[in-house]
Automatic annotation (TrEMBL):
Keywords linked to the UniProt accession: Transferase
UniProt-recorded name of the protein: Asp-tRNA(Asn)/Glu-tRNA(Gln) amidotransferase GatCAB subunit A
Any GO MF annotation of the entry: transferase activity
Keyword Transferase: yes
Lineage top rank: taxon: Bacteria
Stretches assigned to coiled coil: none
Gene3D superfamilies attached to this UniProt entry: Amidase signature (AS) domain
Keyword Transferase attributed: yes
């Protein structure tokens, strides 16, 4: 096994025991980037020399007995909305030409303090306002979409071009690409991970979280990221995230909610079957399935868009007027449309969110987690604009991908996507788990237990 194939947990154990040096790991990942990047386009920029310098420093620190923890010497890709001091934050847009960050974002500073090594900045759908990341190819089939908006981060992890990565999630932008590329994606509870220094899409819905190869790795990264920061007004002082995987998972007593609506409508039969099989695996581990009805389901997407659209347009108001030609057409149209939503509509969306959040809290009094598909279909072909369902209904690709992820953003609940097999074409399917606010521990426990029932996953065979 090559070092770039290692998970965080495996790599950190070898580094701690001096069986692998950070230099060897970083060189291996950089070599993998060189091989796969021409085929995938996951990175905006690769920081090869800086990464090698940081790896050598990590090696010296560890030799002196200053081991910082499981991320020390481990390479990470950061979605290019996340500021790193002295580096551009392009948001994958011409609008940001010439930009250079003056200081680290909170999450970049925390990763730096944990000893992680920046491999480079990964592509996003322009300003995170889309669900495909058109610059980037799916790690399993280059003719298909990567998913978005954190497509570059998910593809880099799936292909071994980063040991882990960070993404952002406003309507599914961590979970969608993670599911479509067969990796783990965690959207934490709203407010758990600070967003200071991260370019916003929608300030009341944005989250930052990890994309990794395993649930255990997601827990390791989350532990480094979480914690209050007064510079983010939404940041919450919550208890530390302390999850340690069980060697022999036992889910006895865990109540798993199985939706009877919303998550079963217009879902590909192969995806539905994979999720049904996953719930059966959880039941075999002792969990108790409980049927639940998703409350206020028909209001979820209108509420999401009623929040995202005006908030995104407000952020971009100045450049949309002075340099609209610098935006890609799809994003410019969305921003222009958002300007048509008045303050009353935005207030109504906020009121609807409160009602939805309260209704979901009542559901989660009856179950510990909810199990559902992450997305209703696997990765579509690049350029495909609609999905047609067996009943003849057509749905835009972006609407299809956001539909099942939206509840966790509207409510602020934590949500985890875990690979749950592949369809007949070999494309990954994602199982989504949603939990109570700030109960990431239960979410990670259930996700890890399910993951242990599956064969070890190989990296995407890009080349």
């Amino acid at each position: 096994m090559q070092p770039y194939e290692l998970t965080i947990a495996a790599a950190s154990a070898r580094i701690r025991e001096r069986r692998l040096s950070p230099v060897e790991l970083v060189d291996s990942v950089l070599g993998r980037i060189d091989r796969v990047e021409p085929h995938l386009g996951a990175y905006v920029a690769v920081a090869a020399e800086q990464a090698r310098d940081a790896a050598r420093e990590a090696e010296r620190e560890i030799a002196r007995g200053r081991y910082r923890g499981p991320l020390h010497g481990v390479p990470v890709g950061l979605k290019d909305l996340i500021d790193v001091a002295g580096s551009p934050t392009t948001a994958s847009s011409r609008v940001r030409d010439g930009h250079r960050a003056a200081a680290d974002s909170t999450v970049a500073a925390r990763l730096r303090a944990a000893g992680a090594v920046l491999a480079g900045k990964t592509h996003t759908h322009e300003f995170a306002y889309g669900l495909t990341t058109p610059q980037t190819a799916n790690a399993w089939d280059r003719e298909r979409v990567a998913g978005g908006s954190s497509g570059g981060s998910a593809v880099a992890v799936a292909a071994g071009a980063a040991t882990f990565a960070l993404g952002t999630d406003t309507g599914g932008s961590i979970r969608v690409p993670a599911a479509l590329n067969g990796v783990v994606g965690l959207k934490p509870t709203y407010g758990l991970v600070p967003r200071h220094g991260v370019t916003p899409l929608s300030w009341s819905l944005d989250h930052v979280g990890p994309i990794t190869r395993t649930v255990e790795d997601a827990a390791l990264v989350l532990a480094a990221l979480a914690g209050h920061d007064p510079r983010d007004p939404a940041s919450v002082a919550a208890p530390a995230v302390d999850y340690r995987p069980e060697r022999e998972p036992d889910l006895t007593g865990v109540r798993v909610g199985v939706p009877v609506n919303h998550y079963v409508d217009h879902v590909d039969p192969e995806v539905a079957a994979a999720v049904h099989h996953a719930v059966a695996r959880l039941e075999a581990l002792g969990a108790r399935p409980v049927e639940v009805e998703v409350p206020l389901a028909r209001y979820l997407l209108p509420t999401l868009w009623g929040l995202v659209a005006p908030e995104a347009s407000a952020y971009h108001a100045r450049t949309l007027r002075t340099a609209p030609e610098l935006y890609q057409a799809d994003v410019r149209v969305l921003l222009e449309a958002g300007e048509l939503i008045d303050a009353g509509d935005h207030l109504r969306a906020q009121r609807a969110r409160t009602l939805i959040r309260d209704a979901w809290a009542r559901v989660l009094e009856e179950v510990d987690v909810i199990a559902a598909p992450t997305v209703p279909t696997t990765a579509v072909r690049a350029g495909q604009e609609t999905v047609t369902w067996p009943d003849g209904t057509s749905e835009g690709v972006a609407d299809a991908y956001v539909r099942l992820c939206a509840p966790a953003n509207v409510t602020g609940l934590p949500a985890l996507t875990v690979p749950a097999g592949q369809d007949a074409a070999g494309l990954p399917i994602g199982l989504q788990l949603l939990g109570r606010p700030f109960d990431e521990r239960t979410l990670l426990r259930v996700g890890h237990a399910y993951e242990r029932t599956q064969p070890a996953r190989a990296l995407a065979p890009v080349v």
